[in-house]
Amino acid sequence: MTEPEVIPAQDEASGQLDGPRAWCHVMYGLHALSAVSGILSSATIVGYFVFGWPSIIAVIINYVTRDQVRGTWLATHWRWQLRSFWFAALWLLVAGLLMITFIGIPAAIMVMVGAGLWVLYRVIRGWMALLDRRAMPVPAA
Questions:
Q1: Number of domains in the chain
Q2: Dihedral angle at the C-alpha atoms of 31, 34, 39, 44, nearest 10 degrees?
Q3: Which of 27, 40, 117, 120 is surrounded by the most beta carbons within 10 Å?
Q4: 15-31 per-position pLDDT tens digit
Q5: How many C-beta atoms surround the C-beta of residue 98 within 10 A?
Q6: Does residue 87 lie within any of the structural domains?
Q7: First-residue to last-residue Cα distance in the chain
Q8: Model's pTM, two decimal places?
Q9: How high is the pLDDT of residue 41?
């Protein structure tokens, strides 16, 4: 897979992106809290990631603050997090539809486990890239 085009940060030397980068850390932290809560509770990882308050708060912060990072490398992290959330919701919907039938229950469990592992991967990979100040490989908007 090829690396995405890195959009230069607006005057990063002067610290202009320190605030948005801090918000990005907060959002990854909230998503991680939701995922860990799903592991430690009776909920599923993907279920708590989509319906847990920490992730819902992170998505709200994401939508409210994304204009601040438009045109910078941080915009890829905003998009990465939103895509992670909405695709997790989609996979949870698929699992819910599979649960309706008796035969679909094993498939639904596999979908939820797979989506949970995928969520963990997305949160960890994104947060590690943010720590290294690297853009995320997201499709063009």
A1: 1
A2: -110
A3: 27
A4: 556 789 999 999 999 99
A5: 18
A6: yes
A7: 18
A8: 0.83
A9: 84
